[in-house]
Design a protein that fits this description.
InterPro entries: Aerolysin-like, Natterin_C, Tachylectin2, Tachylectin2_sf
Distance between the termini: 67 Å
Strand content: over 45%
Number of helices: 3
Pfam families: ETX_MTX2, Tachylectin
Largest sheet: 7 strands, mixed
Number of strands: 21
CATH superfamily of the largest domain: Proaerolysin, chain A, domain 3
Helix content: under 10%
Low-confidence stretches: 131-136
Shape: elongated
Protein name: Tachylectin 2 domain-containing protein
Order of helices and strands: EEHEEEEHEEEEHEEEEEEEEEEE
CATH architecture of the largest domain: Beta Complex
Structural class: mainly beta
Number of domains: 2
Mean pLDDT: 85
CATH class of the largest domain: Mainly Beta
C-alpha cells in the first residue's frame, strides 16, 4: 500500500496513512521520524528512496523508519556542487529525474548514483518546457499549511512475519565438499600383539545462513525480525532437499543465523602388530539455495507476500573409514 511521507516547516519527517476524506486528520495520524536540517530540496523516487540537497550536494538513502536517526549517516552523496543551481526537482513515475535551474534551464535524466559524474553535464538531457495540465482536485483535509513537502511512497517497511514457507522442491545444491569432523591414529608399531581400541566421538558441527528478499522491501532500522520454521536438509543416503519438520528453528530474517547439527558414532578398531591405523569420520557439507515465500505485515498494518532465497549449509551422510597409516 501507499503511505504519505511529509516534512514540516521545521524539517521534521512524518509518515502516515494516505488521507482519503476531508475529515481525515493526517497531521494527527502521522508519526514523527527524524529531522532534516539545512536542506534546500527534498524529493522521493518512485521506488521510495529519499533524495536531499544540502550545501549544493545531492544525497540519497532510505526513508528512515525510526525516530532520532541521523539520515545523512545512512545516505550517500551522489552529486556535487551543481545541485545548488536547482529550483525544482521531481521524479517522473518511470523513475527519471527532472530538474529546473534558477536560470530557467530544464533537464531530465537517470537517477544520480555517482558523485564523481556531473549529472547535468554528463547524464542529463536538456529539454524545452512547453504545455500545461490541470488536475481535478478533491478536498482531503486541513492544516496542511504546516508542511513544506509531500510525496507518496510505498509502504514496504516490514515489521513482522505472519507466516513463512520454505520451498525445498525448488532448492538447489550449489556445492558439496567432504568435511573431516573427527580423526585419530592408533599405533601399534612396537608391539607384537594385536591391539583393540574403540573409535567413539560425539561432535557438534556449526553452520551459518542468511535470508535475501526481493528488491524494494526493507526492515525497521535496528529491528530483528524472528519467526519459527523447519530446517532444510538432505537426508542420509538421499539426494533431494527436504524439510525437517520435527525440529522447529527460530530464524532471524535480518541477521546471520547460527545452527548446529550433532553427529556421533562408535566403532571397534583392531591394530595388527607393527602397524598403525588412521580412522577418519567424514560428513558432506552442502551449500544450499532454497527459495521461500512469506506473508508479512508492514509498519502501517498492510499484509503482503514476499519471496526470496535462503542461503545456508547442511551437513549429512556421516561415514567412518579405516586405513593403514
Amino acid at each position: 500500500d501507499t503511505v504519505l511521507f511529509s516534512i514540516t516547516l521545521d524539517g521534521t519527517m512524518k509518515i502516515g496513512p494516505t488521507p482519503k476524506h476531508y475529515r481525515d486528520d493526517y497531521p494527527a495520524q502521522a508519526f514523527n521520524l527524524t529531522t532534516l536540517e539545512n536542506v534546500s530540496h527534498v524529493l522521493c523516487s518512485p521506488e521510495g528512496e529519499l533524495f536531499c540537497v544540502r550545501d549544493k550536494d545531492l544525497y540519497r538513502g532510505p526513508i528512515p523508519s525510526k525516530k532520532n536517526v541521523d539520515w545523512f549517516s545512512m545516505a550517500r552523496r551522489v552529486g556535487k556542487k551543481d545541485w545548488g543551481k536547482c529550483r525544482i526537482l521531481f521524479f517522473h513515475p518511470n523513475g527519471e529525474l527532472y530538474v529546473t535551474t534558477i536560470n530557467g534551464k530544464f533537464y531530465k535524466g537517470p537517477q544520480p548514483d555517482n558523485e564523481k559524474v556531473s549529472w547535468m553535464n554528463k547524464q542529463a538531457t536538456k529539454i524545452k518546457l512547453s504545455g500545461c495540465f490541470v488536475d481535478n482536485s478533491q478536498h482531503l483535509g486541513q492544516n496542511f499549511h504546516q508542511f513544506r513537502y509531500f510525496c507518496f511512497v510505498k509502504d514496504k517497511t516490514i515489521s513482522n512475519i505472519i507466516s513463512f514457507q520454505f520451498l525445498p522442491e525448488h532448492g538447489q545444491r550449489v556445492s558439496e565438499n567432504p568435511e573431516v569432523i573427527e580423526e585419530r591414529v592408533y599405533k601399534n608399531k612396537e608391539s607384537s600383539v594385536q591391539l583393540k581400541h574403540s573409535f567413539t566421538f560425539d561432535k557438534t558441527v556449526k553452520s551459518s545462513s542468511s535470508f535475501a528478499h526481493e528488491h524494494g522491501f526493507t526492515f525497521e532500522a535496528g529491528a530483528e525480525v524472528k519467526f519459527k520454521a523447519g530446517v532444510p536438509f538432505i537426508g542420509e543416503g538421499e539426494t533431494d532437499l527436504k524439510m525437517n519438520l520435527n525440529t522447529t528453528h527460530t530464524w532471524s530474517f535480518t541477521k546471520t543465523n547460527e545452527s548446529e547439527v550433532r553427529f556421533s558414532s562408535s566403532s571397534d578398531v583392531e591394530v595388527p602388530p607393527g602397524k598403525a591405523i588412521r580412522v577418519v569420520a567424514l560428513v558432506v557439507k552442502a551449500n544450499l539455495l532454497v527459495p521461500y515465500r512469506a506473508k508479512v505485515r508492514t509498519i502501517f498494518g498492510s499484509e503482503t507476500e514476499i519471496e526470496g532465497t535462503w542461503n545456508g549449509v547442511t551437513h549429512y551422510n556421516l561415514t567412518v573409514t579405516q586405513k593403514d597409516e
